[in-house]
Amino acid sequence: MDGTLIDSLPDLANSARYLMQSYQLPSVTDQDVRLMIGDGIKVLVERLLAHAGNAGSKIDIQEATDRFIAYYVKHSTDYSRPFEGAVQAMEEFKKRGWKIALCTNKITSAAKLILEQLKIDHFFDAVGGGDLFADKKPHACHLEGIMKMLNADPAKTVMVGDHINDILVAKNAKVAGSVYAAWGYGPAEIGKQATLVANTLLELPNVAENVMSK
Fold it and tell me: What is the pTM of this model?
C-alpha cells in the first residue's frame, strides 16, 4: 500500500513528527520516516523511539503506538494520494479480468478507510491488514489468508510491492512470482530478488502478466 499504490509518506511523516513533539523528542525528516516504514505502525513507532535514543527508550511503546494511530487515522489522507498511474493500472487489471487484493501490514480498518477516502476502494476484491491473520508479511500466512478470501490459486497470484517483505511473502507463500515497484520507497537492490521489475504503474499490468508466463 505505502510506496506501491499510495504516496502516503507525507501523512506518515507528519504523524511521526506529531508523536515526537508530543513526547518532546527530537523531530524527524520525511527521509528518516521513509526508511522506517513497511513493517506496520508498531514497528514504525519502535523505530521512531529508537531514533530518539535514551529519551525514547523510556517511553511505553504501546502507549506511543496508540497515540500515533489516533492522530494518523484522522490525518491519513491529508496529503496522501494514489501514485501517478495507479487508477489507470487498476482499471486495466479489471479489464483483463484480474482480481485485486491489498496485502498490507497496516491495520485493516485503517487501510480500508484510506482506500474509501481516496475513492479507490471499489477496485479491491479483498483487503487484509497485518491484524487480520496470525502473522503478517513476510510470513506466508498473511498472503495465504488473502488468497483464501478470494479462493485464489497461488499459481495464478502475483505479489506487487516496493518492500523486501513483499518479495519475501511471495516466495514464502509460493505464488507465481513478485514484481518490484521501482517507483516506490524501497531501495533498488530489492528488485534483484523479485521475479520482475516494473518501472511505472502504467506498465505494471503487462509486467504482471509476464510473471505468469515465466
Answer: 0.92
Among residues 16, 48, 75, the one where a domain terminates is 75
Q: What are the cell numbers at 91?
A: 482499471
Q: CA gyration radius for the chain?
A: 17
1 within a domain of the structure (yes/no): no
Find the CATH number of the domain harbouring 130.
3.40.50.1000
Amino acid at 142: H
- Beta strand pairing call for 196-198 and 126-128: unpaired
Place of cell 507525507: 10
Decide the pairing of beta strands 101-103 and 126-128: parallel
Q: What are the percentages of helix, strand and coil residues in the chain, rounded to 5?
A: 50, 10, 40
Confidence category of residue 164, pLDDT binned at 50, 70, 90: very high
pLDDT, the chain, mean = 97
For residue 189, give the amino acid letter: E
- pLDDT at 40 exceeding the cut of 90: no
